């Protein structure tokens, strides 16, 4: 672990390789698990504000779940998250013709309907953020469904921090990311 400002960052972020291999996993991270996508407090307001613009991109099952449970819910851990369809996939998930799970919010963003890409937790994955009173932990979340992404990242030599560069900058800013790059350069020299 190393500290950058008010963050404590796992060395795995710079040591491990990762590159999403959506053709292998079919977006399984959006449909498996025991909870919805984590949402920051400010994201709960955004998701409510954009719902009417995102709704045309969603599946009936997702719309039904959102309209029954709300645009976001409080999870078992007391944190905000996206609602689920049948305690399984995220209510905002849509599927491509070949069955690959995609984000309906991101599809609305890609089509120019909204200016918000998706929850930062989804954008950051496989990086998970945990807020503490004075520090924020930045960790790698290893999940077996992402084994193909680890293999592809290893083959192409793409460290996690480079794979999620845009999301890390979105979350922590350009200066923080440049500092992370410097730490990574020094770390890999060892």
Please give a structural write-up.
With 190 residues, the protein is an alpha+beta fold. 43% of the residues lie in helices and 16% in strands. It has 10 helices and 10 strands. The protein has helices at 12-15, 22-25, 41-54, 60-69, 104-110, 120-124, 147-156, 160-163, 165-172, 174-189, and strands at 2-4, 7-9, 73-74, 80-81, 84-85, 89-90, 93-95, 101-103, 127-131, 136-140. The strands form 4 sheets. The chain has a 4-stranded mixed beta sheet with strand order 1-2-10-9, covered by helices on one side. Strands 3-4 form a two-stranded antiparallel sheet. A hairpin with a 5-residue loop joins strand 3 and strand 4. Helix 9 packs across helix 10 (174-189). It starts with a strand and ends with a helix. Pfam families: DUF3109. Belongs to the Rv0495c family.
Helix content: 40-55%
Question: How many distinct beta strands?
Answer: 10
- Envelope shape: globular
Termini separation comes to 15 Å
Coarse structural class: alpha+beta
For the biggest β-sheet, the strand order reads: 1-2-10-9
User: How large is the count of helical segments?
Assistant: 10
Strand-residue proportion: 15-25%
* Global mean pLDDT: 94
- Give the biggest beta sheet: 4 strands, mixed
Q: How would you describe this structure in keywords?
A:
Rv0495c, two-stranded antiparallel ribbon, DUF3109 family protein, globular, 10 strands
């Amino acid at each position: 672990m190393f500290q950058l400002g008010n963050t404590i960052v796992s060395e795995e972020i710079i040591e491990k390789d990762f590159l999403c291999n959506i053709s292998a996993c079919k977006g399984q991270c959006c449909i498996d698990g025991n909870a919805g996508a984590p949402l920051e407090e400010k994201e709960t307001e955004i998701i409510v504000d954009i719902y009417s613009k995102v709704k045309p991109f969603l599946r009936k099952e997702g719309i039904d779940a959102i309209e029954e449970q709300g645009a976001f819910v409080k999870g078992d851990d007391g944190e905000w998250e996206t609602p689920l369809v049948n305690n399984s996939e995220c209510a905002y998930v849509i599927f491509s013709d070949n069955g690959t799970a995609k984000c309906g919010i991101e599809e609305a963003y890609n089509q120019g309907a909204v200016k918000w890409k998706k929850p930062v937790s989804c954008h950051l994955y496989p990086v998970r953020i945990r807020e503490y009173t004075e520090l924020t932990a930045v960790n790698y979340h290893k999940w077996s469904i992402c084994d193909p992404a680890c293999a592809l990242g290893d083959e192409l030599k793409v460290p996690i921090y480079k794979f999620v560069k845009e999301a890390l900058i979105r979350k922590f800013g350009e200066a923080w990311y440049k500092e992370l790059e410097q730490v990574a350069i020094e770390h890999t020299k060892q």
